[in-house]
Design goal:
about 160 residues, mainly alpha, Arc Repressor Mutant, subunit A, 2 domains, 6 helices
């Protein structure tokens, strides 16, 4: 499989972005190639060869992405190979998970303030400010999603 220089650059850019969000390099690049490729699905071999990563790294990356719901695979009649693709229908689930994670962080930060015995009003004020923002975000987000859906439906009508 041949990719353009721009496609290869985007795979790398996306990979670096995902690495900064905690993904392993091979996992990040596999996600990148599945997003950037002109083909809707790619085989194990296409991914491994195009990214020039080992079969083991490819297998581990694909299994991690399958287990976390980022990708899925399909098979075609008469073909034993699996064809991998981005699971684009789960953006809302992914977004909700991120919001749940922020809610969990917010709860931990509130408990941090409760147990801290240090006298540092500047730090405490900054932490309270961040906690307040997370509370606000949690309250506003359902409205934002609803507004976006209404706007999106009107534009597509």
């Amino acid at each position: 499989m041949t990719l353009s220089d721009k496609q290869l650059e985007l795979i790398e850019e996306f990979g670096v972005y995902q690495e900064n969000n905690g993904f392993q390099p091979a996992v990040a690049r596999v996600m990148g190639i599945l997003l950037v490729s002109d083909k809707p699905e790619l085989t194990f071999e296409e991914i491994s060869e195009t990214l020039n990563i080992s079969k083991s790294a490819t297998s581990n990356a694909l299994n991690m992405l399958l287990n976390t719901g980022h990708i899925e695979y399909t098979k075609f009649h008469g073909d034993r190979k699996r064809y991998f693709r981005i699971k684009s229908s789960n953006w809302r689930d992914t977004f909700n998970k991120k919001m749940e994670d922020l809610g969990e962080l917010n709860n931990i930060l509130k408990r941090v303030l409760e147990v801290r015995k240090r006298d540092n009003p500047v730090y405490d004020e900054k932490l309270l400010y961040f906690i307040s923002f997370l509370d606000y975000l949690k309250g506003q987000l359902p409205n934002l999603i609803e507004q976006w859906e209404k706007q999106n439906l009107n534009q597509n009508a």
